[in-house]
Amino acid sequence: xxxxxxxxxxxxxxxxxxxxxxxxxxxxxxxxxxxxxxxxxxxxxxxxxxxxxxxxxxxxxxxxxxxxxxxxxxxxxxxxxxxxxxxxxxxxxxxxxxxxxxxxxxxxxxxxxxxxxxxxxxxxxxxxxxxxxxxxxxxxxxxxxxxxxxxxxxxxxxxxxxxxxxxxxxxxxxxxxxxxxxxxxxxxxxxxxxxxxxxxxxxxxxxxxxxxxxxxxxxxxxxxxxxxxxxxxxxxxxxxxxxxxxxxxxxxxxxxxxxxxxxxxxxxxxxxxxxxxxxxxxxxxxxxxxxxxxxxxxxxxxxxxxxxxxxxxxxxxxxxxxxxxxxxx
Amino acid sequence: xxxxxxxxxxxxxxxxxxxxxxxxxxxxxxxxxxxxxxxxxxxxxxxxxxxxxxxxxxxxxxxxxxxxxxxxxxxxxxxxxxxxxxxxxxxxxxxxxxxxxxxxxxxxxxxxxxxxxxxxxxxxxxxxxxxxxxxxxxxxxxxxxxxxxxxxxxxxxxxxxxxxxxxxxxxxxxxxxxxxxxxxxxxxxxxxxxxxxxxxxxxxxxxxxxxxxxxxxxxxxxxxxxxxxxxxxxxxxxxxxxxxxxxxxxxxxxxxxxxxxxxxxxxxxxxxxxxxxxxxxxxxxxxxxxxxxxxxxxxxxxxxxxxxxxxxxxxxxxxxxxxxxxxxx
Lengths: 329, 329
Hints:
Creatine Kinase, Chain A, domain 2, homodimer, 10 strands, 12 helices, eight-stranded antiparallel beta sheet, alpha+beta
């Protein structure tokens, strides 16, 4: 069965070159120095593509944002660029808030894999360049919250029962005591669309990378258990209402001829609940992948469909229907 | 393929006994006289059940109203009664607006069959009793609009395209010129739930029964053609939107675990459109029958389910799903 409670893991490291102004005040030659350093460091590590934001069209930038390979802030920046590993498991953003932010992704709960990937790049980077580092504080960053390890370890979690029962606030308080934060899927200030939240370390100072990863992993494990228990209890209380929602959602996904992304995401919540409760079995499809694939720019890129809202909604409906029904189309 | 445009036909005759006060002013002995006359007239014609409204419970009365075997007015009357043919193709209401209102039903467009059934009863009635009749006016009735033949020939029609395109008003004007009326399915002052309308003769004076039947039949044939053309044209203009609505509706009907009658009726509209356009084929189910069967009192009677709204909604969902999927349950 697909793991839907822990959607994915991510580790990112924030780094800045020594004796170089932070992005908000950097000169063009400093921008070029950062780009060269990153490309040089990655050269013998992995195959990657280099993208300068100023040279990308809107659809390409939006596609990268949709896939979470770059941040919306980077997409809008004038001097930003990104180096993205071909298999899309790792990306390095340049001239976002910091000079260099490397991030690595894995599906499910696997912060260790993410950490070793960014660590490998970070070691290469350190061997090629002198980084802004303070013996007592650690790595220096544009925002004080990232000073220290410069690391954020985060886990995306699907928490429908906690959401429905209004218990996310409670969880937030608990996590705060362990210096962890929970927020909407797209980061600070975003809403938890599709009941997806990000749990991550709140501080990165005075604490080792390993400790951060252990804390976030343990919290994710605990939250997974809480969510599972709450969902089971909710199901035994609201059996028919929940089954109604699950089977309707699946029926609409496999029948609609016009489907907006917003509706898709709402329906996917219920279908994932259905698979978690064993009400339906769709092992041939990762519904999170399907949702990503259907985001506007990703969909146009994937299918070559027209870029009007209606054309996308029709193509999305056909794509979802065919994939769920196991047809190649 | 099921005929969904013309749902059903009905002919009713209004009669009153001579020298007997109209229902609103009748004495108890006059009520008894009417009852006896009707029972006596029907005796050798068909097997029937006799129901006195004062002796029926609410659920029984509501069931008869749901099946359109009696009017809501009769159900509420103190001295009303009904004689209902076992196969439910004919019912005689007593002490409603008139002393005696016999009505016969047929599915599809078949006013002739309805007329011959009520005519047979009417001839028997006339042979047993003296009716209120005026040589120049014809049969006398409580409301002047029924004076003459005392007949109303009506056809229930499903008109989704005319409804959606807002053309029912136009049609109403046209029909008015031919002394025909169109109104909501449950008669005067009711709304056209489920896009179902009743077309019938507006007057019954100075015109023969045959002429009434011919006029209403021809109008129904014409409206059927208009509706068919409009629906085809609408479909070619709004192909995908219509298919979306049709396939979603069918998917929900075959998946929901909780289903209100109101939602059922809305979804059935779209599924019927789908079968009329050949988008889906469900020849094993008459969706109009299914809708009738799921009305609250009919459903409780049929399935023996509890009479709370939720219990009915659950039972309705199960019934609809199983019948559409061809399961006996």
